[in-house]
Specification:
mainly alpha, 42% helix, disordered N terminus
Length: 123
Amino acid sequence: MVTPLPSAPPLTPGWYVRMRREADGRDVEELALFLPTDPPVPCGTRVEYIRAVEAGVQPVTVDFAFALQREVRSFRVDVLFSLVSFAHGWIDAEHLPPICAACGFVPRGIEKIVCLDCGAVQK
């Protein structure tokens, strides 16, 4: 089944975190349970942090990015860091990888007309 592509996504780090988390079928609370922290942080604090990152009010830490790469299917730290660079104006949109607007999936090495993860039609 082909899903129509939504309007252009905001292309923020928080958007990418939310899209990949949702594509992995996890809610914020479930993801928070699996994210390791050192020193230990209560689950409620981790939930608040994830929500703040997704809302764009909290920056992504390197530890959080690599924990997401371990815990969330098809989450790519290089894509997240590209979006951080874009958000800060360090790179232009043309230097971003092709990102599915429906689920945040990024194919490796090739552009596809249909997203390999969710089936959305790319323009």
